[in-house]
Each structure stands twice: as C-alpha cells, then as structure tokens.
Amino acid sequence: MKDKFVGKNRIPMHPHQFQPESLMMSYGYHPEWSEGAIKCPIFQTSTFVFSSAEQGKRYFELAYGLKEAEEGEVQGLIYSRLNNPDLEILENRLTLWDGAEEAAVFESGMSAITTVMLEFLRPGDLLLYSTPLYGGTQHFIEEVLPEWGINILAFSPSDSLERIEECLAGSGNRDQLAMIYVETPANPTNTLIDLEWMKRLKEGHSVHGKEVILTVDNTYMGPLWQHPLKHGADLVVYSATKYIGGHSDVIAGAVLGSKNRMQRVKKLRTFLGNMTGPWTGWLLMRSLETLKVRMEQQVANAIQVAHFLQQHPAVERVYYPGLLTEHDGHQYQVYKRQCSSPGAMISFDVYGGEEEAFAVMNQLKMIHLAVSLGSTESLVQHPYTMTHAGLNETEKLQEGITEKMIRLSVGVENINDLLWDLGQALDSVLASQPQTAALIEEA
Ligand SMILES: *Cc1c(COP(=O)(O)O)cnc(C)c1O
User: CB-based contacts of 346: which residues, under 8 Å, 6+ apart?
Assistant: First the structure.
C-alpha cells in the first residue's frame, strides 16, 4: 500500500513532526482509496484482485522473499491472512507510540506472546522469565514449552541482578539462554523490573551469531507510559484487549520491534493464521484515536484514588508506583528512569483477609467486579482467588499476593463517583465487621 505519510520524518512538504495522538486519525490512510471516506472502511474481504497476472507474480515474489523489493516498492495486497488494509494501517499507527520499526497485530495477546516464543525458542534453549506473569503466559511457559524441550528458569522481581546471575550460573544451561521475558510492573504487586539490568544480562549472554532476545510485555503500562524498546528491549508485546482496545469489547494482541525480527514474527503469523480480522483491526483503529485522552484521564483518576485509599482506615497498604519515594531506593530509581507515569493499576490490602476483601468488592455500586484491565470502566478483582488462583501457596506468598489484596483498574469515570464508591464500600466493611476495627486498633 502506498502511504500518505510513508514513515517517520517523511511527511511530504511538512517538516513539522506530528505527535502520535495527532496522527491516529489519519496516518497511513488516503481518503481517495475509499470514495473520499474520512475514515478507513472495514475491508471485509478474504482476497484481493490482481490487475494482471504479472502483478500477481510480483506480489508473490516479494511475499515469499524470492526477490528483493525495489526502492520505494511495497508489498501488494494478496490475501487477508497475509495482509489487509485494516491490519496494515493499524500496525503503522501502533509503531508511532513505541518508536518501533514494525508491528504485527494478533487475534489475542496470548497469540502474540506464544508466536514470539515459538519463533525465537528452539529445543535445548533456555528461557529466563520474571514471575508472576500473566496467568496464560506463565502456563504456556511452565506447562507447554518444557514439553518441547525448552528449558525454563524463573526469577522474582525482588531478586537482585547478582542473584539472577547466580541462578543462571547454577542452572547448568546458561550458555543456551535464548530469551529473557519480563512483565513490568509485575501484576498485581506493581513491583518494577529494572530493564537496564535485563539489558545487561542480555548483552552479557549474547554470543556472536546468537543474540539473546529481550521481550517485554508492556500491557500494564500501555503504549503511553513506558517504552521498553528505548530501554534495550528487542520486542514489546501487548494484550491489545487492555489499554489499546480500551472498551472491554475486543480481544487482540500486538508485537513490536525491529524490521528484521518482525519479519520473522509476521512470517510465523502467516502460517499459524492468528492475525486479527479486519473488523478487529478497525475497532482497534477507532480505539487508538482516543488512546491518549483515555489513558491520561485514567492516570489522573488513579493518582487521586491511590492517595484516597492510602489514607482510608480500612486499607492496610497500597501498591502503586505513584506512591514510591526516595526511601524506596532502587524501585523508585527504576520508576523514574523507566516510566513516564505511574499508570492506572492499583492494588491494595484491606485489613483482614478474604472475607473483608470480598465484602468491599461486593459492596461496590458502580465499579464492576471483573478481570481484565485498562478499559474505560473501573474494574476490581481478587488476585488470590481469581487471576492468580493458578499459583501455589508458596508462590503467592513469595510475591506478596495475599487474601486481603484487591486489584483495581481505574477507568475514566468522574473522580468523585470513584471516590464515593470506594469510600462507601470500605466504610461499610469497617462498620459491619467489628474484627476489622479490632485489627486496625492493633496496627
Ligand atoms: C490480558 C493479558 C494478556 C493476555 O492477553 P489476551 O488478549 O487476553 O490474550 C497478556 N499479558 C498481560 C499482562 C495481560 O494483562
């Protein structure tokens, strides 16, 4: 496809560099392609007509890498499992936030993640990963990859770089390290992982001809608040179901990185057939137009909510990067270096245990009780018995996931409504449960 803006810094006759939020409405799309329609239509088609047999031949030569593209020549549309305007334009727009060379969109976050692992890991390789990870990812790593002869080694966000190096040395297959996979901040504790450390690990263990791939799941911070590619990551993965989609109405995923690596990811995607359909692509383009305003409202709300929770007598502890101070040492430094915002995911412990946490969640009037995150509506859930139910007791306690913890994804609602709802739910627990009052007395 011919782009109106053929890439960063190549906007014809406009030396001005537009910001991503300005480009989300138009980048990569020409109204002339669609009868002047200002919005990119849904190209609900499985296949594309070639203007001649010669053109069809040429498109396949490029698609199969049989011939090199000439200067300025772009891959033509062939079949919607390989490419489709709604996917390509969406991918071009997604690259702008993270400063990536290329992006690929998938039918789910899990398909994005598993495709990356399948492409860059081979039997005998070692995968080093942070825990806890998103439940689906951790299951795939721990239950599926070993069946295919891939060695795995977990570390905790609280481990020092020296400790991780020691574990690697003790693993017996340090030399086979092929990928480091992390989620930062960790879900649900918001513990940050130092990407500078991960970069050092990666560089220290890459050998000529075999580079260790650093992959970061950036779902928790979305494309706005943290840009792992700028901190040494090779690939960034997203569940686009979360902030990118942002309306709890679509399941999708994305991978971003350099051209070379993304060509490998896209090739495997073609054969697995797990790309998004045109309708999902269109929905995500629509979502991207409001990504920044949504996320900015969410973080503004989250900051106020975190402070409110911190001073509420029914709340024992709040986990939120925005509450870190110099006294938190390394965590604070990583936060300052790596994140441009504290995000809109807050976890907090109520005094008591499951009973008190459940009472608070059941008492909420506006905030919904559901898993997922990053959407316009605020959601609460109970990691111990819900998203992290698959971890064993020791793992949960080691990560600080207890029965008294509630995870809150802050939406775009009016801040007074959010504070009122949380306040009345927490107050009601205080009032109805004398044992909670007693616990607070003790503390
Ligand atoms: C939701 C989520 C995923 C999985 O994405 P799906 O779109 O549900 O497949 C992966 N990682 C994180 C951090 C998530 O929150």
Answer: 190, 302, 305, 306, 309, 318, 319, 320, 407, 408, 410
**Ligand 1 centre and the CA of 237: distance in Å?**
9
Which pLDDT does position 70 carry in this prediction? 93
Verify whether ligand 1 is closer than 6 Å to residue 136 (CB atom): yes
Distance CA(97)–CA(99), nearest Å, equals: 6
Told to judge if 81 belongs to the known catalytic residues of this protein, a careful annotator would answer yes
Ligand 1 centroid distance, CA of 387 (Å): 11
pTM above 0.85, yes or no: yes
CA triplet 99, 105, 107: central angle to 5 degrees?
150
What is the whole-number distance in angstroms between the Cα of residue 138 and the centre of ligand 1? 11
In terms of Cα–Cα distance, which of 219, 241, 234 is closest to 264? 234
Round to whole Å and give the CA distance between 294 and 376. 7
Instruction: State which of 288, 317, 332 marks the end of a domain.
Output: 288
Cα distance between residue 112 and residue 230, in whole Å: 20
How much is the average pLDDT of 34-42? Answer: 96
Contact 171, 126 (CB under 8 A): yes
- Check whether 345 has a pLDDT greater than 60: yes
In a domain? residue 136: yes
Asked about 122 being catalytic, the answer comes back as no
Strand partners, 381: 407
**Looking at the domain assignment, is residue 275 inside a domain?**
yes
303 with 249, same domain?
A: no
Supply the CATH number for residue 339's domain: 3.90.1150.10
- Asked if 256 and 94 touch (Cβ cutoff 8 Å), the reply is yes
| Residue 163 annotated in active site | no
259 is catalytic: no
Angle, to 10 degrees, between the axis of helix 330-338 and the axis of helix 195-205?
A: 90
Indicate which residue's Cα is closest to atom 7 of ligand 1. Answer: 109
pLDDT at 434 over 70: no
Q: Give the Cβ contact number of residue 362 at 10 Å.
A: 11
- Torsion sign over Cα 260, 266, 267, 269: positive
Q: Could you write out the DSSP letters of every residue in 322-355?
A: GG--GGGTHHHHHHHHHBSS--SEEEEEESSSHH
